[in-house]
Specification:
The chain is mainly alpha-helical. It has 2 domains: 98 residues, Orthogonal Bundle (Arc Repressor Mutant, subunit A); 103 residues, no CATH class. Helices cover 60% and strands 6% of the residues. The protein is built from 9 helices and 2 strands, in the order αααββαααααα. A two-stranded antiparallel sheet has the order 1-2. A hairpin with a 7-residue loop joins strand 1 and strand 2. Helix 6 runs antiparallel to helix 7. It is elongated, with a radius of gyration of 24 Å.
């Protein structure tokens, strides 16, 4: 018989839910609160609680979690508390190992925009990148301030994602700063005529029927 857990597609939010349930049963509000308290909402999209409920529902249907009980208090509406199944306990380690080991082809917005930056003038591209660099400087400052504060109460292994974001942000800022310098000096430049000529040359040997 096919493993039920194999039917559930791994996702960052699903991984977070299963990982939190390793520590013990939780209701969705508790999961969301811990994700935010530990700063994991910077790397996991948990902004809409509806997405969290949908993810939990999929994992329940796939046999990775099950309902332990429901609880009610005078302050809050009834809450459903979930716990891991044996399949869920195995799945979280399988998902985590695969996500750590295998780089995934992802398609973020910034590289896509860079691939068509030539549609702007060099001056417009330089201005846009300068704005991005300013945002990155702010983010890097925040990370530099947050890491020591969190490390005072959390072990380093919990903060590896923050270290990674800091390293990526610093590397991106360094690269963009160099690119801006090249644009300002004129070392990197282009024109619309050059791009038209390039496109014409590359399409010259293509069957016209394929590009109509």
């Amino acid at each position: 018989m096919e493993d039920e857990g194999a039917k559930v597609r791994p996702s960052p939010l699903g991984l977070a839910v299963l990982s939190l349930l390793i520590a013990g049963p939780l209701h969705p509000y508790g999961m969301q609160r811990l994700i935010r308290l530990w700063g994991k909402d910077q790397v996991i999209n948990v902004g809409q609680r509806a997405n969290l409920y949908k993810t939990i529902a999929r994992m329940k249907e796939g046999g990775l979690v099950t309902i332990r009980h429901s609880e009610r208090s005078f302050q809050y509406p009834e809450r459903t508390v979930y716990q891991l199944t044996d399949e869920g306990r195995a799945a979280v380690r399988d998902w985590l190992t695969e996500m750590l080991a295998a780089p995934r082809r992802e398609f973020p917005q910034f590289p896509a925009a860079l691939s068509f930056a030539m549609l702007l003038t060099p001056q417009a591209a330089e201005a846009a990148l300068a704005r991005r660099a300013e945002v990155l400087r702010g983010r890097l400052t925040e990370l530099e301030e947050e890491l020591p504060r969190h490390s005072a109460r959390l072990p380093r292994v919990v903060l590896l994602d923050d270290e990674y974001r800091r390293a990526l942000t610093a590397a991106e800022l360094t690269w963009i700063t160099g690119l801006i310098d090249e644009l300002r000096s004129g070392e990197l430049t282009w024109s619309e005529d050059q791009l038209v000529d390039l496109a014409s040359a590359d399409l010259g040997g293509v069957d016209p029927e394929l590009v109509e």
